[in-house]
Amino acid sequence: MAEYQTAYQALTSYDDEDTDDNDLPINDHDVMIHVAPESSKARWNHIENLDDFFNRVYHYHQRHGFLCMVLEEILQLVQFVFVVVFSTFLIECINYDVLFANIAYNHTHKVTIPETIYPVKQCFHRFDFFIVVCLIIASIFWVFRLIKVVYNIFKYLEIRCFYLSALKISTTDLPNMTWHEVQRCLLEVQKEQHLCIHKQELNELDINHRILRFKNYMIAMVNKSVLPLKFHVPLLGESTFLSTGLKYNLEFILFWGPWSPFANNWHLRDDFKQSHKRQILADSLASKILWLGVCNFLLCPVIFLWQILYLFFRYAELIKKQPSALGARRWSNYARLYLRHFNEVDHAFIARLNRGYGPASYYMTIFTTPILVILAKNVAFFAGSVLAVLALLTVIDEDVLSVEHILTTMTVAGLIVTVCSALIPDEHAVYSPERLMKNILAHIHYMPSHWNGNAHTYKVRDEFALLFQYKAVYLVEELLSPIITPFILCFCLRKKALEIVDFFRNFTVEVVGVGDVCSFAQMDIRKHGNPQWVAETETLANKYHQAEDGKTELSLMHFHLTNPEWKLPDNCSVFVNTIKDQAQKDMASLSVMQQENAAFSSLYSPMPSLGIGVGYGFSSMVTSNATQSTMTAHGHSHPVQLPARLRGALTSIDGPLYTSSMGSLQNSTDLLSSGLSAIASSRFIDEGTRELMSADMSFSALYMHEMRNRRTRPSENLEDIRTRVQWQRQDSNTPHNSPHTPSMPEIVERPVEEEKEIDTSAPDEQHRITKSC
Is 327 a domain residue? Predict the structure, then answer.
């Protein structure tokens, strides 16, 4: 009992100031009951590497728990061994002369499989120097992978224990919980057990900062064109290149490599925060990039061979069964950085891209070349005729297949027919490129300003193809990546070394309880807002500090709607309230116009839904089908219209289809206002409301783009349109020959202010580390 008393005194005497006055007295009999939970809590107190810990918590949820993660890791090891062993077996252990009957092996029976395989000893003797080197490198790589897998398994066990003991989430409950529910439990655990000791309470932004710290830097560097990912290729024009291998090298040299600018996962090296060392650091970084490029060049043959084997084993069977898979499209690796919001977690971003896949695919089918269509129809006719005859002969007598190259001819003919069919448009389709682009924008949220009104042009189509590339192009990029990546590192990225150093110095801030983060990820409107997207009084940023394409504004709105319990900073709150107030004014103006003039109302009325291809039906304007729901905003209750369509699962949202910019404005303001006003004063938001508000981001993005367009081009606003309608009504009721015929006032044009040119080649301003709570 004396040992228990000593243990109790040691636990309770280390910090008398934090002792709660309401703590009940504990007698000797209760000491053991008291010590057990304290030791359990202490296990999760002050986690040293919270970035890694929160990342593992997130991936544990997304990858469906401990068993799935371990099984996936082990099977990846087995898959690597299979690819290496099976490839070596095919290259060195098969007697292809016997297999293809190039030599007379025997005349008594058909050649068997064992007769086409060399004996084991002979197979080993056939190994040449190149094969031996490849096997040694593969073995070393596999051993490192094995060590990493064993390490990860122990980490997975730790996270599993954290879910069970701290978060109180069982294995059976995990598949049915959303990430927001897990995140809410995580914030509650911080209050009790202090995972982070630098802050009493964490918020949603702090967690996202730690999970997406380096990803936010990558998004910002792509947004500011710091990384050389766009190239002008002769005969091909502008193109982008960001293969998986190049992306791995960029992250290695910039973030987690031994010579990266970061001292650890959460702290930028002090040298990079000092402006007078910028040139020295740039030279050092350029030298490291050069050596990394040389290493990539030396390993190029091995990596290239691995790429060939891996892509062959992975896609050969798919291409055989579905040749049209090469004609399918995917969001490019560049698009996955360009279209991503700051602080947007993986699963939400992937779901958003998946919702935009349908309209994007249909949009790309609009553009056909008449000559190519004519040729495709005729080639498909010839190849189909040959295929039909050979298929008929096979049905009559199956011995036809034993004729040399008959099966090959049928396969090639079928492939040609499939490819030509993909080039022939549907004769019953009705194409509306501008409306489709609105549907795409509702989901991807980003597009250059010059796309607006030009979606029917090949220029916009080619630029959009950089974001939405053919899968065949993706496979070619991955195949050529070992060859192209060294050249990009040595001749393109190395020249950007000084710009990269300046970027880290100028756009890094220290946040209490989080560490060094990209300042763009703070979504500070005053510091990084763009005058095209916000009122000029709301931002103080010059051109160098402004995020492009509304990245700051759209990211803030997205994070606000997907994390409604997050308390907005003052400057961000002003921006959101300004958007909401403007939306309400526009709604009121449109309502008045519709009541005053029936013709105007019909002109901008919702368009009925339009089916656009197999499986891609897009919702109509939802105002007429809206249901009344009372929400609270600014302390006053008022009815707002929420579409019944949006009450389902988030993945079922297709997005609006619009007849005009004014039509999109009317309905997007309805949904934007409802989404913003749906944020109740309570700290708890149920998942249904959260899904609804997350879906409203599509309408918010459209409305914000509409406001940007109104700011950046001379146009008439809603009041101007209303005035015109009133004068037209008066004009229609007044004889044209009357001397008192009123003249319609001129529409006031608001010219765009010229932006001041700012030299951003080498900013010399001293970086200041700012601390915010």
Answer: no
Q: What's the CA dihedral at 723, 729, 730, 734 to 10 degrees?
A: 150
Q: What is the pLDDT of residues 492-533, one digit of tens each?
A: 999 999 999 999 999 999 998 899 999 999 999 888 988 888
Residue 615's region, left for phi above 0, alpha for psi from -120 to 50, else beta, is left
Question: What's the whole-number mean pLDDT along residues 661-674?
Answer: 45
Whole-number pLDDT of residue 731: 47
- CA nearest to 441, candidates 458, 474, 464, 457: 464
Asked if the model's pLDDT at residue 75 lies above 90, the reply is yes
What lies within 8 Å, CB to CB, of 579 at 6+ separation is 557, 672, 676, 700, 703, 704, 707
Q: Phi/psi of residue 230, each to 5°?
A: -110, 135
Query: Would you say residue 695 lies in a domain?
Result: yes
Count of domains in the chain?
A: 2
Q: What is the DSSP string of 413-438?
A: HHHHHHHHHHHSPPTT----HHHHHH
Strand partners, 610: 618
Q: What angle do CA 725, 726, 727 make, to 5 degrees?
A: 95
Q: Quick one: tokens of 134?
A: 């490849």
What length does the chain have?
773
Q: Give the pTM.
A: 0.76
In a domain, 90, yes or no: yes
Q: Give the CA distances from residue 370 to residues 203, 236, 280, 424, 425, in Å, rounded to whole numbers and listed in that order.
A: 56, 21, 57, 10, 10
The Cα–Cα gap between 566 and 690 comes to: 12
The DSSP H or E segment spanning 724 is helix 718-733
Range of the domain at 192: 46-202
Is 322 among the domain residues?
no
**Three-state DSSP class for residue 262:** strand
Among 565, 583, 610, 604, residue whose Cα is nearest residue 710: 583
Mean pLDDT across 326-352: 93
Domain boundary residue, one of 700, 719, 738: 719
On the question of pLDDT at 138 being above 80, the answer is yes
End-of-domain residue from the set 156, 184, 202: 202
The dihedral of CA 189, 195, 197, 201: what is its sign? negative
The pLDDT score that the predictor gives to residue 723 is: 56
Give the closest residue to 560 by CA, choosing from 672, 721, 686: 672
**How many CB atoms are closer than 10 A to CB 197?**
10
Task: Return d(Cα 73, Cα 622) in angstroms, integer.
Answer: 46
- Per-chain mean pLDDT for the chain: 76
Residue 736 or 371, more confident: 371
Could you report the per-residue pLDDT of 236-272, keeping only the tens digit for each? 889 999 999 999 999 999 998 888 999 888 899 999 9
Which value, to the nearest 10 degrees, does the dihedral of the CA atoms of residues 394, 396, 400, 406 take?
A: -30
